[in-house]
């Protein structure tokens, strides 16, 4: 809609054009046209009265005032959102706190070969100190750093610590249930 409006505005010869009903997600597009934006808001009670009287959609006027004040302007509630957020955060914390991350250096043929990845780094640093503009030196330093970082990341081992089935179910219920409550409070259910 806003793109079609932009085409109409660009074709117009008028010096001043007034447009109303711009949504918040369209605001940046309108500002990029060079438009001046005047933001007008109203108290929640007045907005609720306008909502009840406009009758543009079949479900206009169906919600009561408490649901109208819901999270994100939907029929969900702020309280429901906060409970869901608390559940999701606590479930994620409990789940993640049971994860152990370990590492061991990469081996080649049964021997620790981490030191081999330092050889190009040593030569690269030596070349760069000799000639700071040497492309070969900078390439060796960069490639060595990539090899070292990727070697460390590829050799991380992630384990889930032993815990009871009951604790695992509680963690999953808290996390997934919290996400469900957050979604329920944000999505308009009509």
Description of the structure:
With 190 residues, the chain is mainly alpha-helical. The chain has 8 helices and 4 strands. The protein has helices at 2-11, 27-32, 44-54, 65-68, 78-96, 118-130, 135-154, 165-186; strands spanning 99-103, 107-108, 111-112, 156-160. The strands form 2 sheets. Strands 1-4 form a two-stranded antiparallel sheet. β2 and β3 form a beta hairpin. The longest helix is centred in the C-terminal third of the chain and has 22 residues, at 165-186. The mean pLDDT is 79.
Number of DSSP strand runs: 4
- How many helices? The count is 8
Overall pLDDT score:
79
Give the distance, in angstroms, between the N- and C-terminal Cα atoms: 23 Å
Radius of gyration: 29 Å
Poorly predicted runs: none
Key terms:
190 residues; mainly alpha; two-stranded antiparallel ribbon; 4 strands; 7% strand
